[in-house]
Amino acid sequence: MNQRARSAEDKARRTEDLLKAAEVLAGELGGARHVTVTAVAQRAGIDQSGMRRYFSSKEELLLELAERGWTRWRELVLAVPGGPDLFSPAEAAGVLSRTIAELPLFCDLLTHVPLSLEGDVDMERARRYKINAFAAYDDMARHLEAVSVMSSPQVADLITITLALTANLWQVAHPTPTLAALYEQVPRWGHVALEFAGNLTHLLEASAVGIHARGLVAPAS
């Protein structure tokens, strides 16, 4: 193997080490917002100044994880086979809620992407994220249209609702220590807030049924 190939291989390995370290730390620390460049570099065994050779900032590192989350979500959705009968709207919603719930870090990052991550990197990095996210979105929409009774615009609306609900409900369901203590004092609030998967599924199913029903109503003349 020549020097250039070894260098590229080493860089790829170091990049993966940093991404894995960030992912593990997000899980250990209670969310991506607690991840720091210093902690990531230490966990990956890389000098902090050397980390800049791989990612220019924490935001670029986390945006890479969000982009990979889109890829993984697409893989999970496309792996759901169609049956002899088309999925009902509620079943299509179930596919989206079940698959995205398997990706906790992605659920968390969906809040941070529009707030800071994609706006705090250079334009070309933001462009790459958008291209890959929209490609995944389009692939999932085509697949769900093919295996369900929902039309293409209806599926697109449902995926958009999934993203919005996930970004909100995930943060609510993973409260700060202050809120966690408050929920212990008022269990009703905690019960409403902390059930991420159940709330997501319920709201998505209701949305899917409503979106589809609206499409069946003939427009007023």
From TrEMBL:
Keyword DNA repair in record: no
Cross-referenced Pfam families: TetR_C_34, TetR_N
DNA-binding positions: 36-55
Span of domain HTH tetR-type: 12-73
Xref: PROSITE patterns: HTH_TETR_2
Keywords: DNA-binding
Residue ranges of coiled coil: none
Matching InterPro entries: Homeodomain-like_sf (IPR009057), HTH_TetR (IPR001647), TetR_C_34 (IPR041483)
Protein name: DNA-binding transcriptional regulator, AcrR family
Gene Ontology molecular functions: DNA binding
